[in-house]
Q: What sequence folds into this?
């Protein structure tokens, strides 16, 4: 099927495209913030840690732009059905992306305050959790940019594994702190890092749910299938 | 005009235009949907579809990963080379802030080059070169070529990883060996029964070092090929037959038995047969090791093969609620292999971490024989195949691992007509 295109792009389509484009840009930036935060945790990369928080204003700015443009579209074009869902989803997704950027920056800042000397606090669990969250984030943004509900469902399903890891990590860190109060400082930072990773996972899931709703007009079912995906 | 421009482009890429008569390839499955995966929308007039399609005809003959973007960084077209090399990652590459800001900063005729790193699902190093040209007055497009530096990157990381792991994990058995040698020379020099006992333990430790080295080497090999898509097709029946043969030595004389459930007539899927067999053998070996605890009780291992969608989509798919961008194409199908055992099971908190290198479930009886690398290898192989690994376990009941391999959409191999849409996303061409 070959389409002959002599396409006059309506300014409505153009504006909607602009919103999509800005969301994808935000997605790309928060993905790289997340990657830098992980480099900061795993490789103790201080430059990456600094850079992750420096990207924050860009994301905030884009969020405001998406919001302004979406409201404009709603007010002037009164979109219906799928278009309406997409624009409302875009506003909410930009909020989720902005929060993800904040969490990633916060993780990166905390790694700068960690004691490098405390060898007992191996980053194994955080690394795994981070990878899983990174994978979910990437899938959520792919799902968003390609309006792909299949991917959205996968993200929504794997969040259970993130929660499981967070709970395990929480227990482990509390045990350390009870055994040896000298670790409280480092463990508290690690606990907040884990919490922030878990938050990022939640926001990625939110994005997936909104993409699914925008694409299908239906909500995801309440129960998740059994079985945990493994990173 | 456009033909001349197209030839210039090809010349710019250092390739002689062999004529624009060839087929146009496109990414049947996700091509049209990719059109939203980029940066800002075009503010200039969209390039004329005609000039663009003629240019693309020529570009697709270039044996490299070539993309055509609009001035805002959105992917208008991804050539066969780009799909072959990067597939689904093209969206993530082109929204990378380094790539997008390079593209947005280009004026007519400008070039830019950036290096990017992607972490998931597979670590990849990508170098992108961009050049903005006009295919007609006021109609800019950006040509991008992508190079894959993952192999060099993987090689460098592998060296450091190998040294770190080898020094860390080989130290324990080596220390044991050194200790026993001291004892044999000194206190046990005149005690033949003790010597025999020690020698047996030493043989065990040496065997462990051997296994560890074998596994480390296997892991390195798997990592080196990770970013290259498997080229072959494999038949589930042939895989199961090989697994049966190769699992025989593991089962013989032991407490474990293997039941295979393989329906006839399952379709082939895209994969590397040796690696798929390796995955199943590792899972079966684990089921034997961890399933039969210290009491050496009988363990029944099941290997079930089915045509299925990824586990994450089950239950949702049945209700007909999934509408991917590829209407009519439906959800990705593939082959799922499930390895079950009736062993002691694994607590939920360990499950997501099982594929970590050297991760051990504490208190497990197999810590002496396991290398801690089996599932890490499994995971790398599955990532290479764009497959999925899920695990379901209940303490006291048993564990089941499911590996799912997609049939593979053969995007890069099939010949499709192109749908070029320079303005808005479209439902994909049913491939």
A:
């Amino acid at each position: 099927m070959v389409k002959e295109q002599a396409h006059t792009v309506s300014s409505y389509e153009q504006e909607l495209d602009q919103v999509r484009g800005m969301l994808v840009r935000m997605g790309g930036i928060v993905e790289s913030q997340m990657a830098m935060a992980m480099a900061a945790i795993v490789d103790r990369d201080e430059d990456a840690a600094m850079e992750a928080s420096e990207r924050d204003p860009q994301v905030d700015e884009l969020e405001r732009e998406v919001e302004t443009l979406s409201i404009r579209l709603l007010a002037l074009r009164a979109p219906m059905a799928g278009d309406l869902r997409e624009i409302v989803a875009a506003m909410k997704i930009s909020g989720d992306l902005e929060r993800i950027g904040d969490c990633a920056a916060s993780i990166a800042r905390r790694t700068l305050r960690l004691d490098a000397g405390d060898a007992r606090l191996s980053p194994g669990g955080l690394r795994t959790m981070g990878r899983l969250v990174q994978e979910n984030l990437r899938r959520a943004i792919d799902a968003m940019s390609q309006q792909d509900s299949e991917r959205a469902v996968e993200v929504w399903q794997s969040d259970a594994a993130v929660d499981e890891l967070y709970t395990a990590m929480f227990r482990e860190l509390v045990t350390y702190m009870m055994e040896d109060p000298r670790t409280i400082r480092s463990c508290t930072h690690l606990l907040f890092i884990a919490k922030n990773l878990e938050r990022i996972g939640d926001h990625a899931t939110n994005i997936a749910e909104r993409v699914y709703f925008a694409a299908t007009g239906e909500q995801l079912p309440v129960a998740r299938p059994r079985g945990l995906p493994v990173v | 005009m456009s033909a001349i421009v197209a030839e210039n482009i090809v010349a710019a890429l250092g390739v002689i235009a062999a004529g624009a008569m060839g087929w146009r390839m496109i990414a049947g499955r996700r091509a049209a949907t990719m059109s939203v995966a980029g940066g800002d929308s075009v503010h200039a007039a969209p390039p004329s579809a005609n000039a663009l399609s003629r240019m693309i005809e020529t570009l697709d003959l270039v044996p490299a990963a070539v993309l055509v973007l609009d001035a805002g960084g959105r992917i208008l077209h991804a050539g066969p080379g780009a799909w072959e090399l990067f597939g689904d990652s093209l969206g993530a590459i082109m929204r990378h802030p380094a790539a997008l800001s390079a593209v947005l900063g280009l004026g007519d005729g400008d070039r830019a080059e950036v290096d990017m790193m992607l972490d998931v699902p597979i670590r990849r190093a990508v170098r992108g070169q961009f050049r903005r040209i006009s295919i007609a007055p006021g109609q800019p497009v950006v040509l991008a070529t992508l190079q894959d530096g993952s192999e060099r990157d993987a090689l460098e990381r592998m060296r450091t990883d190998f040294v770190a792991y080898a020094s860390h994990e080989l130290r324990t058995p080596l220390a044991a060996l050194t200790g026993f040698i001291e004892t044999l020379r000194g206190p046990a020099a005149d005690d033949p029964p003790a010597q025999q006992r020690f020698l047996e333990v030493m043989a065990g430790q040496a065997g462990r070092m051997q296994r560890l080295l074998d596994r480390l080497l296997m892991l390195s090999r798997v990592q080196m090929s990770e970013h290259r898509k498997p080229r072959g097709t494999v038949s589930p029946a042939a895989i199961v037959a090989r697994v049966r043969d190769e699992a025989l030595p593991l089962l013989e004389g032991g407490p474990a038995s293997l039941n295979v459930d393989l329906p006839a007539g399952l379709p082939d899927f895209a994969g590397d047969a040796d690696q798929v067999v390796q995955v199943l053998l590792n899972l079966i070996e684990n089921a034997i090791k961890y399933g039969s605890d210290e009491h050496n009780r009988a363990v029944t291992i099941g290997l079930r093969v089915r045509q299925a969608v990824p586990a994450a989509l089950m239950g949702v798919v049945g209700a007909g609620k999934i509408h991917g961008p590829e209407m009519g194409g439906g959800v990705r199908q593939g082959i799922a292999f499930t390895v079950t055992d009736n062993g002691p099971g694994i607590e939920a908190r360990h499950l997501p971490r099982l594929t970590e290198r050297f991760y051990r479930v504490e208190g497990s009886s197999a810590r002496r024989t396991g290398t801690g690398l089996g599932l890490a290898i499994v995971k790398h192989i599955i990532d290479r195949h764009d497959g999925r690994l899920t695990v379901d376990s209940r303490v006291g009941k048993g564990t089941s691992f499911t590996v799912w391999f997609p049939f593979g959409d053969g995007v890069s191999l099939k010949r499709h007509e192109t749908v070029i849409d320079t303005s808005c996303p479209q439902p994909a061409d049913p491939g």
